[in-house]
Amino acid sequence: LNLENDLRDAVDSDQLFLMYQPIVSLETGQLDSVEALIRWKHPVRGLISPGDFIPIAEETGLIVPIGQWVLDQACSQFAIWQNTLGASAPRSVSINLSRKQLVLEDLPEIIRRTLNQAGMAPECLHLEVTESAIMKDAAAATRLLGAIKEIGVKLAIDDFGTGYSSLACLHQFPLDILKIDRSFVANIDRGRDFAAMVHAVAQLARNLNIQVVAEGIETAEQALVLQTFECEFGQGYYFCRPVMPDQLQLFSFRPT
Ligand code: G
Ligand code: G
Ligand code: NA
């Protein structure tokens, strides 16, 4: 039951890996970007999902080396895609930052160094943070995210709509991208209320010059409704599940 010690080993012994989920243009269905999603292949227990081990990583401080590994890995993979896929490479890669990473004073410097090493343009790296993570210590997050933005990296707010202060987030933080939580998308074709909320959020974002990604799209109907709301980007099993890096070139979406 000691996942903590196992997790310590996992970092050093190649048990962690990243899968990538396409983010597509809802208008064309074409690949725009990818989100990196961490996985742990435990030698005995098999695949463990981040929902089960990221909280342990946060409690133990292991999130620091793990977060560093994710950043390195995603940036070097992005460079590989640029070299191998050329024009059909994703335009950017996004990684998830946990609450505990938002208090690391040297994070901006680490990001700067990692981008340099990978020869990656800063705007090609997107960082996803949740509302609850940034509101936990809003003052510290404002400082850190401001410093990160100065590098030219883009900031995305994840799970938008699920926190207590969604609207406050929009004007307090220098956001570039808003990801509408999948709980809204799941109900968009079932109830007028959800559709109205998603439509309003998409309009709000457009007025604030923030790009919108709808998460968790599972059906053609949901994709269509979102398109009529002029929501620009989408992500979800309807388009593609998370894939291994060498499978990304196989991605091509055909409407069902
Ligand atoms: O891929 P999956 O749906 O199992 O991910 C579950 C959760 O884990 C998601 O909310 C996602 O944001 C989070 N997650 C995935 N990869 C990472 C990562 O590299 N770092 C952090 N901090 N969270 C991640
Ligand atoms: O919290 P975050 O937005 O990072 O969530 C990413 C998680 O959502 C990943 O674990 C991914 O596997 C999962 N996911 C991606 N697309 C879908 C989908 O269409 N439906 C559901 N239920 N989960 C999805
Ligand atoms: Na995310």
Considering the chains and any ligands shown, give keywords for the structure.
binds sodium ion, alpha/beta, eight-stranded mixed beta barrel, binds guanosine-5'-monophosphate, 20% strand, EAL domain-containing protein, 256 residues
Describe this structure in words.
With 256 residues, the chain is an alpha/beta fold. Helices cover 44% and strands 20% of the residues. It contains ten helices and nine strands. The chain has helices spanning 3-12, 50-60, 63-85, 107-118, 131-136, 138-151, 166-172, 182-186, 192-207, 220-228, and strands spanning 16-25, 31-42, 46-48, 93-96, 125-130, 154-160, 177-180, 211-214, 233-234. The chain has an eight-stranded mixed β-barrel, surrounded by four helices. Helix 4 (107-118) packs parallel to helix 6. The radius of gyration is 18 Å and the shape is globular. The N and C termini lie far apart (44 Å). The mean pLDDT is 95. Sodium ion binds at residues 35, 96, 128, 158.
